[in-house]
Amino acid sequence: MKNPPIVYFVIPCYNEEPVLPETVKRLTEKLDAMREKGLAGEKSRMLFVDDGSKDKTWQLISEFHEGNPYVEGVKLAHNRGHQNALLAGLMTAMKSCDCAISLDADLQDDTDVLDQFVEKYRDGCDVVYGVRNKRDTDTAFKRTTAEGFYKVMKLLGVDVVFNHADYRLMSRRALEGLSEYREVNLFLRGIVPLIGYRSDYVYYDRHERFAGESKYPLKKMISFALDGITSFSVKPLKLISHLGILISVLSVFGLLYALISYFAGRAVSGWTAIVCSIWLLGGLQMLCLGVVGGYIGKIYSEVKARPRYRVETHLKQEEKPEQKG
User: FRET label pair with 47: which of 9, 71, 97, 135, CA 20 to 30 Å apart?
Assistant: First the structure.
């Protein structure tokens, strides 16, 4: 029988002071149970990434690091957003783990299925996606917009896993593959499927948030969706080209109709038609400029090649954790 793998739980944190004690408690119990079953080695850890929190999140991580042999921490120099914080944790864990499982600190991801992730890894999978069975804990608006987002991404040719967020397992080999993707505008849900390797799914039910508030209000969700679309698909640019061709063809027919009406003596000056056409074309032009500008902004961010994150402090457990009774 193979030795149990070194498993790292990677948990991005931003102002998670209310929920962090319970998160550490539950994940400690889970790691103990997984070690007893031979699913996690003694060097397994939980790695909390503080993404520039304004509350006592880092203070709590430091305290747990001193008193809990499983807890490690990474403090980013300033807030860089969930995706960059998650990447920082994964790249840090890659140096020490056999596989890493990313999950949220709010305990909405069902920790009971963590065993299934590792079992599928031991069966030869390099990537295991956590997929929600249903979205009954979401509001009707969030459920509709979230499912619509995945469908739009599929229509645009982006390879994303439906109803999968960032609850996933990645082997060290997959993490090394991820490290080769250097884009500044991160959308991990789109990047991970590009890595390839054998993958599988674990289905789970998402719980209500244990404490605190969601870190993804509507504005951030829209921004995240637009980042995903513009980072992985050029179809909006192609749609603009097709729209331009269509309007040009219609304009030719409109010109021919106007000329025929003029020579036939049926031309009547119409203020409404002129104003409507001006507003329509003006609105389309502004929309197209906005889409093109979004892509140019992405190029601007990428060519500067600034660091995606900077680690200020790394708390690492040097000694093996003692077996808990």
Answer: 135
